[in-house]
Amino acid sequence: MKKAVILGALTVVGLVPGVCVAATADDVKARGKLNCGVVDELVGFAAEDANGVWDGFDVGMCRAVAAAVLGDPTAVEFVRTTGKTSFAALAAGEIDLLARNTTWTFSRDVGRKFDFVGVNYYDGQGFMVPKDLGVSSAKDLNGAAVCVEMDTTSELNLEDFFRSNNISYERVAVESNTDAQKQYLAGACEVYTTDASGLAATRATFEDPSAHILLPEIISKEPLGPLVRHGDNEWGDIVRWTLNALISAEELGITSVNIADLSEGTNNPEINRILGTEGSLGEMLGLSADWAKNAIMAGGNYGELFEKNIGVSSPIGLARGLNAQWVDGGLLYSPPFR
After folding, report:
1. What is the band of 22 on the pLDDT scale with cuts at 50, 70, 90?
2. What is the mean pLDDT of residues 334-338?
3. Across-strand partners of 228?
4. Is residue 231 part of a domain?
5. Per-residue pLDDT averaged across 287-302, rounded?
6. Which of 30, 31, 73, 284 is buried deepest, with most CB atoms within 10 A?
7. Whether 145 and 287 share a structural domain
8. Exposed/middle/buried for 124, CB within 10 Å: 0-12, 13-18, 19+?
9. Domain identity same for 48 and 111
């Protein structure tokens, strides 16, 4: 398997409103692989093992799209990106899809000309500190040195929080989560701030996770999700409905264990439509009838992907919370397949 590379400086291709870009789905099919941008090493979300195999919650999204389009969940070239390089890579066509715990904001959607296809993780920004720092609230951090990744919403939220609470801080700008982890453990900063899920994932890799605590404040809304370029609605539909298929599969009880049996046909029309035994949803997307079945088989439904990679039984230990299905008190919800 090819190793992913960190993107350097890229020339951003200007996207003119109203002008269609190349048909990404056709490019992916012709190339025979999906180029998917992921975070630069965040265990539980996207990480590469010693054998060059990628795994994680966001990696699962990439594999599901590759399975839907190409019928092969391994047909993915993973491209490491940082907050500084990710948007340039997507705009320039270096990647077909960005699945990198990225917050959906007005300026990114409208100003940068990207389409967020949905939310795959509802998050919020938090703070991590060494337990021996002796603080119990982010409001006790006056004068603290804070590591924050450049060119992210975390950087802007940090400024807003300290300003609104009339306290000061020293910004320690970092390039990536990997850089932040090194700086934090080396003592270059007393605090690390990013999405709470990212803090939990980072802490899980420490030699002694119990020596670090997450402070109670959540200072922002961070709806994280995959995104594509403006102007290629057909590609956006494919990625959007692949995510919806994973979400609906969990709600309807379609799992990696029973999907083969359910694909023989059921008395539930929506399950049949999703799995391609009824209707013509695949044809509408320009894909095979079993596109959603392939996507779900790539790594399981949404709940299976969540639990395996970041759930309470994983080293990350995240509860579903807002990311539970709507019928279980969460925000997770897919439009109907009909």
Report:
1. low
2. 96
3. 115
4. yes
5. 98
6. 73
7. no
8. middle
9. yes
In the chain, where do the E strands start and end? 34-39, 47-48, 54-55, 76-81, 97-98, 114-116, 121-123, 125-130, 144-149, 169-174, 191-195, 212-214, 222-224, 227-229
Q: Are 63 and 298 in contact (CB under 8 A)?
A: yes
* Whether pLDDT at 31 is above 60: yes
Determine how β-strand 191-195 pairs with β-strand 144-149. Answer: parallel
User: Considering the domain boundaries, does residue 317 fall inside one?
Assistant: yes
In the numeric block, which tokens belong to residue 250? Answer: 């969990």
For residues 297 and 290, what is the distance between their CA atoms, to the nearest angstrom?
10
Domain range enclosing 193: 125-220
Beta-bridge partners for 39: 81
Name the strands in the sheet holding 34-39, side by side, starting at the edge strand that comes first in the sequence. Answer: 76-81, 34-39, 97-98, 227-229, 114-116
Q: H or E element: which one contains 52? A: none
DSSP string of 172-217? EEESSHHHHHHHHHHTS-SEEEEEHHHHHHHHTTSS-GGGEEE-S-
Tell me the average pLDDT across 219-236.
96
Q: How much is the pLDDT for 8?
A: 40
User: Which amino acid is it at 198?
Assistant: G
Judged on CB neighbours under 10 Å (0-12, 13-18, 19+), 149 is: buried
Q: How far apart are CA 62 and CA 74, in angstroms?
A: 9
Distance CA 57, CA 316 (A): 11
Strands 54-55 and 47-48: antiparallel
3-state secondary structure 121-150: EEECEEEEEEHHHCCCCHHHCCCEEEEEEC
**Quick one: CA torsion of 20, 24, 29, 34, rounded to 10 degrees?**
180
Residue 33 in tokens = 């692989």
86-118: per-residue pLDDT in tens?
999 999 999 999 999 999 999 999 999 999 999
State the pairing for strand pair 76-81/34-39. Answer: parallel
Q: Are residues 189 and 253 in the same domain?
A: no
